Amino acid sequence: EAGVVQSPRYKIIEKKQPVAFWCNPISGHNTLYWYLQNLGQGPELLIRYENEEAVDDSQLPKDRFSAERLKGVDSTLKIQPAELGDSAVYLCASSLGILAGTDTQYFGPGTRLTVL
Amino acid sequence: EDQVTQSPEALRLQEGESSSLNCSYTVSGLRGLFWYRQDPGKGPEFLFTLYSAGEEKEKERLKATLTKKESFLHITAPKPEDSATYLCAVRRQNFVFGPGTRLSVLP
Fold it and tell me: How confident is the model at residue B57, as a pLDDT?
């Protein structure tokens, strides 16, 4: 079974440029998460989707970050414009969901963003 | 506010030297405590879920235990391939991760 797929794996941009990350969750997983991970720290939740609905985006900096999950499958996370402090690893995770009796998350490899 | 702390921050062991990692949490209405392993350049890999105090789970050289305020990840006779960062996370409404413990096992 394929795991969570993310692309690109690495991205280097200059500040004020836009950037987008893509995530394809494990087939059948209704819940999708986007996390940000800084070096030496644990992941921090940005947004959680249940199917196509964003049920928790309280930690998403909405002035520059946006996300969407069309048709409840793939998701994209966008930053516009990027700032130096956005340099981090962006992780996507998916789970079957509580209604399926399990909330175990499975993570993708992440996208390492460097803003110059 | 939900908080998760992990200790030690880093741990260096000789191969075969058993030890324990600690995860302390302050959260009301805990809906699960999760342990993950993360290798450099990769996403976290699921290890265990614990739901109630007194619960224990084992996988190869790893054993996770849970009390009302903390969880321990015991590593018995570790091998160099166990070197990684070990993350714990608690779930209430969402997941809150600790900063991790960087484990190095020397041959």
Answer: 96
